[in-house]
Structures are given as structure tokens and as C-alpha cells.
Amino acid sequence: MALDNGSTSKDPSVVKSQLRYGNTTPDQIDREREERLIRKLDFRVIPLVMVMYLFSFLDRINIGNARLYGLEKDLKMTNNNHQYQIVVSILFVTYCLFEVPSNLLLKKFSPSRYIAIIAIIWGLIATLSGLTQSYHELLACRVLLGLFEAGLFPGLITYLTLFYNKRAIALRVGYLFVAAAIAGAVGGLIAYGIGFMDGVGGYRAWRWIFIIEGAPSIVVGIMFWIFMPNDLDTSHFISLEDRAFLVMRREREVGQTASAQKFHWDDVKEGASDWKIWSFCIAQFGADTMLYGFSIFLPTIIHGIGSWTVPQAQALTIPVYTLGAVTYLVVAWISDKSQQRALYTCLFCAVSIIGYGLLISNNGSKAHYTGCFLVAMGLYVAVGIPLAWMPTNLPRYGKRTFATGLQVAIGNASGIMAPFLYPATDGPRYVKGHGVTLALVGFAAVVYASMSWWLRRENRARMAFERDDLMEGKTEDEINEIGDRNPRFLYTC
């Protein structure tokens, strides 16, 4: 959380904002009004953001469903050369390389238009993946898919921070992971239905999976262009007075000045040298290994732990993803209310670790399927909460957008490795893949616990005025512009 320093900034851009919106003062803040406006934002912003990410995630992981319907055989892919694993992982190479640059471009252009354009392009690529005739053609589609999807997830997180403060952001970022869980469940359900289309129009079922699940991204991209605002200033569905209220509400937090909402290269440079950001990033790598290994290979894992048919295995993924989505929604809401991030992250890392223990064990299909549910319960919390935790500790836009892009990029680098943890020869128990993932999730929990300890210690020092020497020789406006280094700023932990 942040302390209100009770000062009025004399930044010209703040004065301009006050002249434009009226003389709104902190005394006018009303909790009921705030909640009403947040609900209004939710109604307009969240649905299309969720649908956008749902189809994005679906386009990335549906290759796991397509595999069960003859993808490898039709494209003459061989296990000896790990061609399936390469096709899966190559997407994450371009995905990771372009996440930070793409996020830095977000505010240079119109955020909603930028997100819309990349959505339309990747939708076309995802759809055309269903028409590929060889391994190399599919490989090229996956490279391009990673390139154009790279900007979406860090872009959406940054986009949401333009509307929501730190007491509301975790639940809204949580909606993205609910969309990912829905994508997994819907993907299994759609794949189950598409399985019966095998041969329709002369196309195999796996081709229809790519075509039917890819085309909606184009439509959603067009809708995003038309209906979505860029920030609070362009949220014309909210009255001028209410927009002033929301702007003032944000600026009450330490470091959230008008200048801080603009892009400055100095903030990016500061972010690149901040060890806290790098710590979050390496922990994200450990948690994201679970996200991609589990999401892509869940149909294969379930198919291998019982005597189920392919359609049955697809259907059995649905309750697993559903539990993961519901768990995250509940935990994200509690986390926002309590402003506790590390506690729930580490607790649900432990839940996933227990799940992987059951998957590794030799206790039969019931225990293994139970393990899938436990992994899903912990997965979205362990991956999602830190993605809301870190940005809320970075009040300056330039540092925040760099850090979010880096956090997502390094986390998603695990997607390059994850497919190689689950070669077909290791089935049906995939002990190596589950074991490595378990260890990396444990590593992430240790890093997050250590970060929480340090942040709490730093907060205590700031509240005891032990960091006030950082304000010496600075004016009030200069103090307000140093972001999270401001001794009045308290970290969320």
C-alpha cells in the first residue's frame, strides 16, 4: 500500500488536469462512489479484455488438443527429432524476445488500437495454421504467432493499471487467468465436439481446431478497436466529473503523480538496474514452467493415466480448469481486500507441489487425476498474483511497463523448455517433467517468501523514518517523483 503524503502537487500537468476536470479534492472521496465507478469500469473494460486473452491463450495451447487428432501423423513429424516439442516451444522464442519492446511501444501508440492490430494479425496466423501441409509450414506459423502475441499479455496488464489502483488490480489481472482457465476448459470442450468433424470438408479434425479457434481473434480485435478506451481520459462512458474523481483517486497514492503516468526513459533505466524486478522475474520463470507444461500437456497427461478415449480425455480437462478458475477468483478477491500477496502465492505453490507429488506417485489413476486438480488449484494463483503484486509496487509508468514486460518475457521463456520436459517416451507418468516442475515451483515459492521478508523489513524501516535521509535536499515535488524509492511509499507484500 502507499501512504498519502497530504500534499498538493504543483506539477503543471496536474494543475492542467485539475483545471480540466474541476476542483476535486481528496475530502470528496466517497467509498461507495469509488466502488460504483469501478463496477462501471469492470462492465466496460473487463469483458472484452477477458475474451481477447481467452482466444490468445487458446491459440497458443490448442496444439495440445490438435496433437490427439493426428497432427503429427499428417505432417509427418517424427519423435526422434523432437519435432512436436520444437513446434510447441518455437512460439515462445519470438514471444519472449518481443515482449519488452512491444510493451515499451504500447503508450507511444494508442494502447487500444495497438492491442487490436496485433490481435487481428495473430488471429489470421492462428487460423491459417489449420491449412499447413508440412512441419516447416506449421513451424513458420508458430514463429509468427509468437511474434504478434508477444505484446498482448504484458500489454493487457499495463493497460489495466491505467484504470485500476493497487487495491483493485489483482482481481482484474485475475480475470485474465480466469480467461486462461476458461480457454483450457473451452478448448477441451470444443476439441471434443470438433473430434466429430473429422473429414468434414476434406479436413482432419486437428485442422478444424486451428481454424475454428483462431478466427474469433480477428473479430475480437476489430471490436477492441471500436469499443475500448485508451485510458481514463478517453473513457467517455464515464462523466467528466467521475473521470476527475478517478484521476484524483489515483494521484492520492504516493508516487502516482501526473508526470509518473508518462513514459520516461530514465524510469526504464532505473527498472533495468532494480534487483527486486529481476527477483520477481526469475521466480516467474519457475511458476510459468508449471503454467505451460500443465496447460499444453494436460490432455496428454489425462489420456495417459487412465483407459479413456481421446474425447473422454478432452472432457476430463474441463472440471480441472474450472476448479483452477474458481480458486483464483476467490483468492484474488481476498488478496485485494487484505493486500496480502506473498502469503497466498506461497500457500498455493505448496498446493501445486502436493499435486505434482500425487502425479509422480505410483498410486493409480484416481490419485493422478486428483493431482491434476491440486495442480490447477495452485497454478493460477502462483502465476497470477505476482503479476499483480510487482506492478502495484512500481508507481511510475516507464519502470512499471518495462518491469511487466520483462517479468512476462522471462516467465514465458519457460515455455521454450516446458515441452521438452514431456517427451512421448516418458509417458504415461512423465516423472521427469513433473519432478522438474515441482522443483521450480518450490524455488519460486522460496524467492517470493524471501521478497516478502525483505519488503516487510524495508516498510518497517520507512515507517520508523530510517530512510528519510533520501529526501534531504529535495523539494516536495522532487520527492513525489522518485517513485517507489520515496521513503513515504510502502510496498505491498
Global structural class: mainly alpha
Summarize the helix and strand pattern as letters.
HHHHHHHHHHHHHHHHHHHH
* Backbone CA Rg: 23 Å
N- and C-termini, Cα separation = 9 Å
- Shape, principal axes of CA atoms: globular
Mean pLDDT: 85
Measured as a percent range, the helix fraction is over 70%
Number of helices, where a helix is a run of at least 4 consecutive DSSP H or I residues: 20
Assembly of the depicted chains: single chain
> Proportion of β residues?
under 5%
Q: What is the number of strand segments?
A: 0
Low-confidence stretches: 1-29
Query: Main beta sheet, described?
Result: none
Description:
By secondary structure, this protein is mostly helical. The chain is 71% helix and 0% strand. The protein has 20 helices and no strands. Helix 5 runs parallel beside helix 8. The longest helix has 37 residues. The N terminus is likely disordered.
Can you lay out the helices and strands and say which pair or pack?
Layout: H1 12-21, H2 31-67, H3 71-74, H4 83-97, H5 99-105, H6 111-128, H7 135-149, H8 152-161, H9 169-194, H10 205-227, H11 240-251, H12 265-272, H13 275-304, H14 310-338, H15 342-360, H16 365-392, H17 397-412, H18 414-417, H19 431-463, H20 476-480
Provide the descriptors you would attach to this structure in a database record.
mainly alpha; disordered N terminus
